[in-house]
Design goal:
InterPro entries: ADTRP_AIG1. This is Androgen-dependent TFPI-regulating protein. It is found in: Endomembrane system. Belongs to the AIG1 family. The protein has 10 helices and no strands. The chain is an all-alpha fold and 245 residues long. It is globular and about 60 Å long. Helix 3 runs antiparallel to helix 4, helix 4 runs antiparallel to helix 6 and helix 4 packs across helix 10.
């Protein structure tokens, strides 16, 4: 990661606050009170079959990496930060942000609210309101987007080559879809209600569209990054970003 807009100490304060929020949200989501009432949490795969929960864990880990990166840069001189642990943590954070944190958070936000607006029973049945508080629903599906956009604004990132980035994201998508199909194969349970209502052809199309939609979200992240950092980079938004292939 290149130098943040407002310095490493300011960035550390923001990252520590966001990381604490995600830890609290994760703890609340996994509380015994919710686990005992949520039918999906008690079936095969538990919460790990839901992309929303996987994203929650991913965001928590990502902002944890951000905190460690900030601490490493604050603790050493600018010259020393160009190598060693600070540089390694920056490289990990850059790749994690561009390939997973931004695309997956954006996908969870957009897919959930599109389906919810059309017919909430397809993705979030009404009885869930009696189990998951409204604030927690927004923490899982809404606040994730402004927080990841805030991170993009605060700190520049080095994107990998476009081919490497998209292939890495595609691998994640394939693994998750394989996991969803495996859960159904073993338990007969579809992770999301909409899948149970689709024909074989419809299900194939649905999964295909869901997987391929990750690509434009990755490209959206690139474009937004360039727009946010064009002025800071002196034009073009490429100062902290590798040339795309």
């Amino acid at each position: 990661m290149a130098t943040p807009r407002f310095g490493w100490k300011s960035c550390l304060c923001v990252h520590a606050a966001v990381f604490t929020w995600y830890v609290f949200t994760l703890w609340r989501n996994c509380s015994l009170e919710i686990t005992a009432k949520h039918p999906g949490a008690q079936t095969y795969g538990g919460r790990w079959k839901y992309l929303t929960f996987i994203n929650l864990v991913m965001q928590t880990v990502f902002f944890g990496i951000c905190v460690l990166t900030d601490l490493a840069h604050v603790a050493v001189s600018v010259k020393s930060a160009r190598g060693g642990l600070p540089a390694l943590l920056s490289q990990i954070g850059d790749f994690y942000f561009s390939v997973l944190a931004f695309p997956v958070a954006t996908f969870v936000f957009s897919s959930f609210w599109v389906l919810y607006s059309y017919d909430r029973e397809l993705v979030y049945p009404k009885f869930i309101d009696q189990i998951i508080p409204t604030w927690l629903n927004h923490a899982l599906h809404t606040i994730i987007l402004p927080l990841i956009l805030l991170q993009m604004y605060l700190q520049p990132h080095k994107y990998p080559s476009r081919l490497k980035g998209i292939l890495s994201l595609a691998l994640f998508s394939v693994v998750y879809l394989a996991w969803v199909l495996w859960v159904h194969h073993i338990s007969g349970i579809w992770v999301y209600p909409i899948m149970a209502r689709l024909s074989s052809t419809g299900l194939t199309l649905f999964l295909g569209v869901a997987a391929f939609s990750m690509v434009p979200l990755y490209l959206l992240g690139e474009k937004l990054y360039q727009v946010m950092w064009r002025a800071a980079d002196g034009g073009g938004g490429k100062g902290a970003q590798k040339k795309k292939k």
